[in-house]
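Below: protein 1.
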Amino acid sequence: ARVDARKTLLYVPSWRRSGYDLSYPDYTPAPDFAQRMQQARDLGFRIMLHVNHFAVSVDSPVYEEMKAYHLRDPVTKQLMYWDWPYTNPPIKFAYINPASKKWREFFVGRMVELCNKLRPDALHLDQTLVVLNDDNGLIDGLNSMQGNIELHKAIRVALPDVALSG
């Protein structure tokens, strides 16, 4: 009664089976999530799902495929992570340089699969404003910023009807 659902976008950060910011790039929905999305749609709401444009959990099998593109701090030479030990379980994932064509193709493929399955109206590409210099140098001829732009372009081409947030 307080909102016009047709004019309301629901941003859903915790919709995946594994929980918020865990087990990237696993985008498997929670068991009841498709049904809950349909209930919201039936009320007229639009839905935006939380994803992360360059996150790979170090315990994911995908990390082995992508670790060559793990961003490295140009000053400390250390690999870069999002590391949040204050939750249970703790959150830690590697930052993969979006300059990598292999990563961009993989991630866009995951987003296409996700959108084909759940049909969200929008994706929130978390951390897209985190543009880091990479001590690994250019990857596929691009720096991290250029890779980020190319990733956005590729998502736009693959999913022209899905709004993007970041």
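Below: protein 2.
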Amino acid sequence: MIIQPLDEVNLDIESRSELDLTQVGLDRYVNHPSTEIVMVAWQTNDGPMEQWDLSEGAPPARLIALLKNRAIRKWAFNAQFERVMFEKLWGIPQQYESWRCTQALAYMMGFFGTLDQVGQAADIPSDMAKLKEGKALINLFSKPQKITQANPHIWRDWTTNPVEWRRFCAYNRQDVVAE
């Protein structure tokens, strides 16, 4: 009997909300009407990196099918965040048994901290590490902006900051690599 390995998908999402996740916690964050998923990067097995972002409209059917398939293991750093966001915002049924958390795995191996801190402690090569500009990009795209005469937009995106948005997309894809 040949046992086929289960399909696996490594993924990461970026979101935005009027609430600060670190201040209010996941439950309040995900249930706030302003909270939305703005992009998802994923890689199935050793296949090509794929990505969806809000500029493309609705999420692709292939991504939704991956998320709904109980036979596919879904890996993410702090997987509960992705799992709950997909369930509450996209209606993907909770499937605890198909989710795996690289953060929990890292902690079981004696590492601690953020993805960046774990990567540094594990001496991950720089081409596989989390991008350093991530915090600035998150502040630009994931948090509401103060409206001023020079900045009439509460939310920044691909229309207001196309160059930075492309960097934000790259940051999202690189998180999948780092994870």
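Residues 107 and 113 are 8 Å apart (CA to CA).
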